[in-house]
Give the backbone structure.
Amino acid sequence: MPDERVPIVVLRDRLRAHVETEGKILKEYVKATNSTKSKALRYLVDLIIEDENQHHQIFRDLASTLEYAIDLVSPATAVPALDFERVDDAGTFELIDQLLRFEKEDNRELEELQREFRSFMDNMPLFGLLTELMQRDTDKHIAILRFAKKHMRRHSENWPGLSEQKSELDK
């Protein structure tokens, strides 16, 4: 076990260093929004700042969880262990399927909007970019839901017929 701790400490320190380095870059983004008169640039950079703040929180959570893994902090970890066995009914599984359907429909609508915005690209080019970014977020949502569903299925032996059930949403 002691030789496993060294890589975890190194990884934790790498995560912390990444947050620190990115924090300096984040300050430059903030400086860019404060110094520009361009509303468009400010809007776009604010979107990046929002994402970067979320990324920083995730990295801090990962580092905190690694500290728990090497016995440096209390058991309250930021990134929880997979406890999908606690999902105790098929209704939750069906809800995940419903959310996947919503996200896939959202993706189709965004693709349609992207095509429709092409005629406006000369006058409103930000529309296309923003729609593309929302499509990427939707793809991320689908990946998260598929991950949850996959791990829930492993613990679904108490839900008759559900453990072997595959839907078109798994594709």
Q: What stands out?
A: The chain has four helices and no strands. The helical segments are 2-35, 39-69, 90-117, 125-153.
